């Protein structure tokens, strides 16, 4: 058996320990043990390195080679401050040396149709979905690439809390929309916190979707996560009270018991997308 404190076991529990000795694990362990970074050194990241990481990210897979994703790198400190001010409760972002916004872009595809005098007949939900997924794939590739060169990252979904204001600040035209931000810099710690994940038997399926014993699996995951990485505070205790058994499921249930981004669909429609 390899290191009993393997990041694979830290992440998924002992049900995954049989995978530690599988060929290729040593090459993948750093990815399995990665963690988001929210504390950065105040060391400048070379602009050329950020450009190289963007190039690496945009080399990732893209649906049908449509390349429907763009990256906005925020260099203007005033603009960065304005964006950060929209991200309530996330003041740590202001300390990140670099801030980028990943966008879905269905605008170029429509322009290609105009240039080649071809009808754009797929103006429905899939046009938005493809661009959003393309941006997400590029974001993931950027994170992996950044960590390879010693940087730390944290994606920021809160960029969608005020998508219209973010869009205006970044000058995003019709059919271009923010998907997520990302804070980037050299981390203050070389050991990221490993956030335990749901067991693989709950999220990896063979042939057909299977949710047998899902409640028991969630309960067991709550207990394992509490042992490894207990929550420091309970979400909205003023509204929901305090719980003697506060785990992942209670935290996420509380989070989505409150409305979030209910106007995002309206924003996307205002960008010109037909979501039918």
Structural overview:
This protein is an alpha+beta fold. The chain is 41% helix and 11% strand. Among the domains are: 47-190, NADH Oxidase (3-Layer(aba) Sandwich), CATH 3.40.109.10; 214-258, no CATH class. The chain has a four-stranded antiparallel beta sheet. α3 (47-57) packs across α6. The protein is globular, with a radius of gyration of 21 Å. The model has no long low-confidence stretch (mean pLDDT 95).
Output mean pLDDT.
95
Structural class: alpha+beta
Helical proportion, percent range: 40-55%
Q: Strands of the largest sheet, in order across it?
A: 1-2-4-3
CATH class of the domain at 47-190: Alpha Beta
The biggest sheet amounts to: 4 strands, antiparallel
Superfamily (CATH H level) name of the domain at 47-190? NADH Oxidase
- Span of the ends, CA to CA: 52 Å
> Based on CA inertia axes, which overall geometry fits?
globular
User: How many individual β-strands?
Assistant: 4
CATH fold annotation of the domain at 47-190: NADH Oxidase
Number of helices: 12
SSE series = HHHEHEHHEHEHHHHH
CATH arch. level architecture of the domain at 47-190 = 3-Layer(aba) Sandwich
Query: Segments where pLDDT lies below 50 for 5+ residues?
Result: none
Q: What percent strand?
A: 5-15%
Radius of gyration: 21 Å
């Amino acid at each position: 058996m390899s290191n009993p404190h393997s990041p694979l076991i830290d992440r998924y529990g002992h049900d995954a320990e049989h995978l530690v000795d599988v060929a290729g694990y040593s090459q993948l362990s750093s990815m399995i043990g990665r963690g988001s970074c929210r504390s950065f050194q105040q060391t400048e990241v070379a602009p050329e390195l950020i450009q190289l990481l963007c190039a690496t990210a945009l080399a990732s897979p893209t649906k049908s080679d449509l390349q429907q994703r763009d990256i906005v790198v925020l260099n203007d400190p005033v603009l960065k401050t304005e964006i950060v001010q929209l991200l309530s409760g996330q003041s740590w972002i202001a300390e990140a040396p670099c801030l980028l916004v990943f966008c879905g872009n269905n605008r170029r595809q429509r322009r290609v149709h105009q240039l080649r005098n071809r009808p754009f007949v797929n103006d429905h939900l899939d046009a938005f979905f493809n661009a959003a997924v393309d941006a997400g794939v590029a974001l993931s590739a950027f994170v992996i690439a950044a960590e390879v060169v010693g940087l730390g990252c944290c994606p920021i979904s809160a960029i969608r809390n005020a998508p219209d204001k973010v869009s205006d600040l970044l000058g995003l035209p019709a059919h271009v929309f923010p998907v997520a931000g990302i804070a980037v810099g050299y981390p203050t710690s070389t050991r990221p916190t490993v956030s335990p994940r749901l067991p693989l038997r709950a999220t990896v399926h063979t042939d057909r979707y299977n949710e047998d014993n899902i409640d028991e699996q969630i309960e067991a995951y709550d207990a394992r996560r509490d042992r490894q990485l207990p929550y420091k505070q309970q979400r909205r205790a003023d509204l929901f009270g305090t719980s003697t058994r506060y785990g992942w499921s209670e935290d996420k249930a509380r989070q989505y018991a409150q409305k979030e981004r209910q106007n995002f669909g309206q924003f996307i429609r205002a960008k010109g997308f037909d979501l039918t």
